[in-house]
Write a structure and sequence with these properties.
The protein is α+β, with helices and mostly antiparallel strands and 994 residues long. A hairpin with a 2-residue loop joins strand 11 and strand 12. Helix 25 packs across helix 26 and helix 29 packs parallel to helix 30. It is elongated.
Length: 994
């Protein structure tokens, strides 16, 4: 009806000569101007064929049928009186130009064409010529049941309205004439004025709006509007259609689609996605199909490894399979090597911005076994059914008389199992059987051919979709007849696969939207609403400009120029959510045709997590660099400390003067503080593995924090969960971590304040934090009420040597970060300038439930035997030797591996072997301890050996047993450390003692 009204308003009042032609070229209608210009057309009437008599070429005709416009120029028209291709001039023998335009209705293919005939010189028509048409228009206007208006574009006044408008709005026609369009429209006056001007200038003739009725209710409407000239004045002719119910229906359909999408995500079929030949996604059924315990066993592995080698060529021709649109039968391999027969169908898909294949798989191993058995049992069947490609059955009074091989294969039954049985045997539902029986089987005797769809149940109880067609055999066979069966299961499965693919695309984990050149958003997927925080209705009223961050707005013009020039562009840009949060995005934009309009397709990936990961990697790399430097310094420093405090230890043991002993004891106390300084350096190195003990951190946390705050004006508040889980931690390193954070908090509150320390049990979910594995953690939160940290500084606070303090060295928080990472945890910070800062530490909970406390006691050691000491530092060799001799041992010294090997072999020849061997791991210019030990053990596999090192990044010191050593001795060490080590092995009877 809308098209007919517009046709009356536009076509009949059209000044140029115009005709309506159907897709076969026959004349459907012509306006007055056309008949006046070409009277011969009126004479020909319906027999006039545009394609024949205007000699339109096949190429032009094909262009029209494909939706393209054609233009040509003629001077003459055919002579219709003779029906021959003779030429007859146009009225007054004038040149004319013919323009033919295809017209589509509701997006369908071209259904008719409009031909416009223009003279080379424009001819003006008198008002009298238009008057009958105009009168006809008003007649249609008044009688139509479509709501119609005539508006004055200069002031928006309603000039006229029809009875349908009065009935819809609830006002009389006279009352409507007293109103302006703004009186019934919810848009502002400026917006209405803009719409009127656009319509008047032919910019657009269709839009949606909301109109107010007399009863104050608001209805959603579609408005079709266009300019018409009446008595030399331009008016706007508008039709209004109520679409409120349609919109409500669309909303209900949307909710239904969401529910159906949830069902699809749980579809009980095996499917997987591959990109670049590797598994990128598998559902649970596919994981079970391949015999895997979980998805991780298959993700990232090659798909071809799960396909039998005999089918590798078929895998490489996957695109051909897709083109043929058929299930392919293949042999897959489970992880344990077991073969299974499957039916697989693949369709192309874009997954995580990569081209790939979505494959649906059905395990048909058992079915293939049944088919093989059936094939063997029916090899003897002969007859007219043998070569048929569809199932055929002969029946009489619904009883099967004969069946062909294909029908047997289709149903899973043998010929013997079917003959003599009722056709009802195949049907799953009795009601469906009764319906099909009446339509198909009972009409055969009447010579009526019918087709029906049905659900059949095979012998193995599986269900298939079939199409049944009946046919009468011959009169001499009385009531016997045939029916054919076509298995439509595959087609149904393909339809389901296509539908599933569309849903998977719609639920892609990226933001996808389409916008025009002005930035108006025309379409957005569900993830777009979630990403930016808008609902669907809100999104209709925003533009691309509303989504751009500050930097994105400034760079938008340049990117638009590049997109127009090259057709596509890829770039990073800041986007803004509804709540004002700015998020980094990777945008891939491309110009496409959509609904016959040039638009821009934009695919956006949120880079927030990627940026956090890059920041995390950058921070780790900085610490690695510092670790190389710190490890070297600590090694040399520990060697010097070992010499210095070894002699200090010996002096303390031999001195008899009280004053000297007092000085020496104070020096030893200082030694312990010096060891803590080297530990801080070791924290940054790749080694320095924490010596962990399983214990509760509750008491340790309180004691360490209170000690760090002793004498300060800070008030502490502890909130520690009573049943706090145990954790494994190095007391020295963890004490340093807590001490640094508490001191930082104290410095942030120079005038005093409150420090809150909380420790609770928590569970981290998968992907909740990119740097933490899922599992149980103890979360320690240290919150101060200080000055806070500026937002731009937070990303750098854990960088080595970065500090905002005049006397700071920038290692405090860097040390904290290094310690917590070595404990397999992580640290996060939240701060509001002027309101305080919270540091949150996550420490993995221990698997053990036993709290182990080891008390250290001063130990002495006495022994006898031979000990070999290898170290490239003379002072280390001599001080270690002096300590061991004080304990009763004989010592031999070597500066490198070759010397040690010579000394050891000589002792073996003299039958005076060594009981213990101390080997330095790092020897300048010679063989180190690990290499030397391998050579020594060739001579004596039972040798007791100890690794010595001041280097923190040597893996031997973390796990000496793995490299053949019995134990380790870390530099610097004192006499007591040697005593503890030897006491641990003195109970062992030395294997080499005489």
């Amino acid at each position: 009806m809308k098209t007919a009204l517009l046709y009356e308003a536009a076509f009949k009042c059209f000044r140029e000569a115009a005709a309506i032609i159907d897709h076969e070229g026959k004349l459907t209608d012509a306006n007055k101007a056309c008949l006046k210009l070409m009277p011969v057309m009126k004479k020909a009437g319906p027999s006039f064929n545009f394609f024949d008599f205007f000699s339109i070429s096949d190429k032009q005709k094909n262009s029209l049928l494909k939706g393209s416009e054609i233009t040509t120029e003629y001077c003459y028209l055919p002579d219709f009186s003779t029906r021959k291709k003779t030429i007859s001039p146009v009225k007054d023998n004038k040149n004319i130009k013919i323009s033919v335009m295809p017209v589509k209705i509701d997006g369908s293919t071209s259904s008719f064409f409009i031909a416009v005939f223009n003279e080379i010189k424009t001819k003006n028509y008198s008002p009298e010529e238009q008057e009958p048409v105009t009168s006809g228009f008003w007649n249609i206007f008044n009688k139509s049941h479509i709501v119609m208006f005539l508006l004055d574009p200069d002031n928006g006044n309603i000039v006229d309205a029809n009875e349908a408008a009065s009935s819809f709005y609830g006002w009389s026609i006279e009352e409507l004439k007293q109103k302006t369009i703004s009186g019934i429209n919810t848009l502002s006056r400026d917006e209405i004025s803009g719409e009127i001007q656009n319509t008047k200038n032919h910019k657009h003739r269709y839009f949606r709006s909301k109109h107010i009725l007399a009863n104050k209710s608001i209805r959603e409407v579609e408005v079709f509007s266009g300019p018409v000239e009446i008595e030399s004045k331009i008016f706007l002719f508008s039709t209004v259609i109520d679409i409120t119910e349609r919109i409500n229906t669309e909303l209900a359909l949307h909710k239904s689609e969401e529910h159906f999408r949830m069902l699809l995500e749980n579809i009980p079929a095996a499917l997987f996605i591959q990109t670049k030949g590797k598994f990128s996604y598998l559902n649970d059924i596919a994981v079970e199909l391949f015999g895997a315990k979980n998805t991780e066993e298959l993700l990232g592995t090659k798909v071809v490894d799960r396909i039998h080698p005999s089918f590798h060529d078929l895998q490489s021709l996957s695109t051909k399979k897709i083109k043929n649109n058929k299930l392919s039968e293949e042999i897959y391999l489970k992880l344990d090597g077991t073969s299974i027969i499957v039916e697989a169908a693949s369709v192309p898909i874009t997954f995580q911005d990569k081209e790939g294949l979505l494959t649906f798989v059905s395990d048909i191993t058992k079915r293939k076994e049944n088919e093989e058995n059936l094939k063997k049992s029916t090899e003897k069947l002969q007859g007219i059914f043998h070569d048929a490609s569809i199932g055929i059955g002969v029946y009489e009074k619904n009883i099967l008389k004969d069946v062909n091989q294909q029908l047997c294969l289709l149903t899973g039954y043998t010929r013997e199992e079917l003959i003599g049985k009722n056709i009802k045997k195949f049907f799953c539902d009795e009601k469906e059987y009764d319906s099909v029986r009446k339509k198909i089987f009972n009409n055969t005797q009447n010579g009526i051919t019918q087709t029906a769809e049905a659900h059949w149940q095979k012998k193995d109880r599986s269900i298939i979709n079939v199409i049944l067609t009946n046919a009468h055999i011959a009169p001499d066979l009385n009531s016997a007849a045939t029916f054919t069966v076509l298995d439509m299961t595959e087609r149904k499965q393909n339809e389901e696969q296509i539908y599933l693919l569309s849903k998977i695309s719609d639920s892609a984990p990226v933001s996808i939207f389409i916008h025009d050149n002005e930035g108006n958003i025309l379409y957005a997927n569900e993830n777009t609403y979630k990403t930016y925080g808008y609902n669907k209705n809100e999104f209709r009223n925003i533009t691309l400009h509303d989504l751009l961050g500050p930097a994105g707005i400034n760079s938008a013009p340049l990117r638009r120029q590049k997109l127009i020039k090259e057709g596509e562009a890829s770039f990073e840009i800041d986007m803004r959510k509804k709540n004002g949060t700015v998020i980094p995005m990777r945008t891939n934009a491309r110009r496409i045709k959509w609904r016959e309009t040039d638009v821009i397709l934009s695919v956006n990936v949120d880079l927030s997590e990627q940026k956090l990961t890059e920041e995390y990697i950058s921070r780790s790399q900085k610490l690695d660099s510092l670790g190389v430097l710190a490890g070297g310094i600590a090694h040399d420093f520990n060697n010097l400390l070992s010499i210095l405090f070894g002699y200090l230890n010996l002096a303390l043991a031999t001195s008899t003067e009280n004053e000297v002993i007092d000085y020496l004891q104070k020096a030893v106390t200082g030694f312990n503080r010096t060891k803590n300084l080297t530990k801080q350096l070791l924290t940054f190195s790749k080694g320095g593995t924490p010596v962990r003990k399983t214990s509760s951190i509750s008491v340790f946390l309180k004691n360490t924090a209170n000690f760090a705050l002793s004498g300060s004006n800070i008030k502490t508040h502890f909130n520690i969960q009573k049943d706090l889980w145990l954790c494994e931690y190095d007391e020295s390193q963890m004490g340093q971590l807590i001490d640094n954070l508490v001191i930082n908090a104290k410095q942030a509150m120079p005038s005093g304040g409150t420090l809150s320390i909380e420790a609770v049990n928590t569970k981290v979910k998968l992907d909740e934090h990119p740097s933490l594995k899922s599992g149980k953690y103890i979360k320690i939160s240290i919150t101060d009420s200080g000055t806070g940290i500026p937002e731009h500084i937070i990303p750098r606070i854990f960088d080595p040597f970065f500090t905002t303090k005049q006397k700071g060295n920038g290692l405090g928080l860097a040390t904290v970060y290094s310690i917590i990472k070595k404990h397999d945890g992580d640290i996060f910070v939240e701060s509001v300038p002027g309101r305080g800062t919270t540091f949150s530490i996550f420490i993995p909970a221990a698997a053990s439930k036993y709290d182990v406390h080891q008390k250290s006691e001063v130990q002495e050691h006495k022994g006898n035997g031979n000990i070999l000491i290898m170290d490239d530092e003379p002072g280390i060799r001599h001080i270690t030797s002096r300590m061991l001799k004080k304990m009763g041992y004989n010592t031999s010294l070597a500066s490198n591996g070759n010397e040690a090997l010579d000394i050891y072999n000589k002792a073996l020849k003299e039958n005076n072997p060594f009981d213990f061997v101390f080997l330095d791991l790092t020897v300048a210019g010679g063989s180190g301890g690990e290499e030397t030990l391998q050579k020594l053990k060739k001579a004596d596999q039972k040798l007791i050996s100890f690794a010595m090192s001041g280097y923190s990044d040597d893996p031997v010191m973390s796990n000496p047993e793995k490299y053949g050593f019995n134990d380790k001795l870390s530099k610097p060490f004192m006499k007591q450390d040697l005593a503890v080590l030897l006491n641990r092995y003195c109970s062992m009877e030395p294997q080499n003692k005489k």
